[in-house]
Amino acid sequence: MDSLPCKGCRGLCCGPVPVTKEELKNIKKKIKSMPLKKRIELKNQDRYLGTCIFYDLDNDKCGIHLVRPSICRAFGYYKNLICFRKPEAAGVGNWNTKDIYAGILSEDFTWKDFM
Fold this sequence. Notes:
This protein is of the alpha+beta class. The protein contains three helices and four strands, in the order E-H-H-E-E-H-E. The chain has one domain (17-113). It has helices spanning 21-33, 36-43, 70-74; strands spanning 17-20, 55-56, 61-62, 101-105. The longest helix has 13 residues, at 21-33. The termini are far apart.
């Protein structure tokens, strides 16, 4: 699978991010395992409106990459989640999940739910 040109995108495609119950559990565990200083730095970053609360704008990368939601893993590779900088990477049909939906990061779940 080709990699996407995410470096330099500054998280503009990272939101809104729907999460499943299992993903939410994994994210909470990841956040709690982070050093407090790193959590606070990530939490206090100014982000573009609608950008995921875990996008690390200072370092131009996902702040929870190892436990990122499945929609983030699928982004750019499915026809309904096309990367505007590399649309040819979207060679698979539409993405969807059969897992139990929990809500949307930044809307239903904010930093207060993870600290």
